[in-house]
Amino acid sequence: MLGDAAALPFENGSFDLVVAYNALMDVDDLAGTVGEAARVLEPGGRICIALVHPLAYVGRFESREPDAPFLFEWPYFERRETHERFERGGLGMTFHSHVRPLEDYTRALEGAGFLLDALRETADPGGDERWLRVPNFLYLRGLRGGSG
Questions:
Q1: Interatomic CA distance for residues 50 and 129, integer angstroms
Q2: What is the mean pLDDT of the chain?
Q3: 30 Cα distance to chain centroid
Q4: Which fold is adopted by the domain 15-50+60-144?
């Protein structure tokens, strides 16, 4: 099924769980998308969010050395769009994302009536050694309040 994340084709309270896996940094209307998640969740339902940590979009390591300093190239609180092209095995893909600070995600949850009940910042244990020192992923879990 294809649809707009800010206008889901489901009835109110249709689900007890919504999962947004590596998606919220790519939507134009963050508040509308999180609001739709709340609408389609039953009271007491949960939203589980996984995304690339906002820090991963604002800097780079000075070199490939394991102890290389992480350098900020953009201000952390600057909201902007990115368009990154990757190619592997002759296939190319362009990712269009929104760079937002952590506060934008927590405010979207708050505005939609969610109670934040878990927040985790994790390293990338499968990546190179540098990413064990800077969070690469962000996991959030919200509980939908209300009675319907």
A1: 21
A2: 92
A3: 10
A4: Rossmann fold (3.40.50)
